[in-house]
Amino acid sequence: MSSTSATEPTTPGSGRARARRLHRVRQLRWVLVQIPFLAVMAVVIVAAVFLIVDRWRRGAFVFGSAALLAALLRALIPTSRVGLLEVRGRFADVVAMTLAGVAILWLATSIDPLGTD
Description:
By secondary structure, this protein is an all-alpha fold. Helix content is 68%, strand content 0%. The protein contains 4 helices and no strands. It is elongated.
């Protein structure tokens, strides 16, 4: 049994207050680490909106741009801070996302629009 009771206030130097503070710092760090992934997902959502409103070429172009953005962020941001953009090793992630982004952009720009955007 602990020497402190549940109704006793926690002082700034107590273990419980320190544990709460550490938990808040870890939660904040987890959220901040996900910012690159959230930025890429925001671009993907824009691409999805274009696709929904029947602007498939623009949507494909924006989606390819999102893949290239993800590759750039994965290449530049340290592994400890890249969050959910890390799937495999840095080299494999960058190469895969770059190839996918370039292929999607090439398709979006090379296919005849046939009267559509």
